[in-house]
Amino acid sequence: MTEQVLVTGASGFIATHCIIQLLEKGYNVRGTLRTMSRADEIRGIIGQHTDKVGNLTFAEADLTKDEGWKEAAEGCPLILHVASPFPLDNPKDENELIIPARDGALRLLRAAKETGARKVVLTSSMAAIMYGFKKQPDRPFNENDWSPLKGPGHTPYTKSKTIAEMAAWEFMEKENPGFGLSVVNPGAVLGPVLESDVGTSAQLVQMLLQGALPGLPPMAFPIVDVRDVADLHIRAMETEAANGHRFVCVNGTMWMKDMAALLKEKFPEHTKKTPTKVLPVFMLRIAAMMGKFPKAGLRELNKWREGNNTMARVTVGWAPRSAEDAVLATAQSLIDLKLV
User: How many domains does the chain have?
Assistant: First the structure.
């Protein structure tokens, strides 16, 4: 009998790629949506990339509400909890992100326990691993690192991901729910965009192609291809040895200037407006005061962070694409969809 997998946040960038790969592997999939009004649209998008979309159904469930989670999880021994708020800029009240991220994860885990699930894979973030350090380690970050909540440089988003993941591991320890938990911690998720709602990370490449920035902030991002994020979720779901582990999910870090140079080299016809000059920090501070650069981004200037993905490679045989390939795949998909 074909097993059914619940994928939460089915309209999201990572979730849609998870669903496509699961369907291609022969699983039945139930995806959660905040409102069923998007069901046909999401089914249509996914149906462009697999002929097995007939094995996809949807259920309505909202991170901020108790209703619907048990019904969504019923009959799904395997669960990928991907849903989490991810804004382009930060809200004034950090609890707008922290509460739905934490409480949504706990709602899902309680539903998994009530319905007898066998395995849950939670999408966390490198935000839960590499932020808030007064002094950054002189090595790549790994699964033993946790972002100190009272440390400097946190944003509501990085706090929300850290608190939500901590709550999930605490739930496992206190409740002993009878299922295995694995956590995937992606960095900046790039790769093939499937629709016009490109997602927060892919907007970075979109802005570079469009020349939306007058110059390049001195910012660097640990990058991973969305197809490899989905692959790691599924490998963790299928591998018993992954139980109890969190996985660094990045494969290379790139400065924005290097991303821009790569795009200009590979897509000369589409990068005539792409900037090449790195902006000085003082200009970006002025721009932030004028509302033309996100204030949260000021904390990221001249920060270089790397992740060590050995745990994922060794435990589940993960073999991700390079950061450069992820950037180019993002750009090609944006061009193909005429979004630039």
Answer: 1
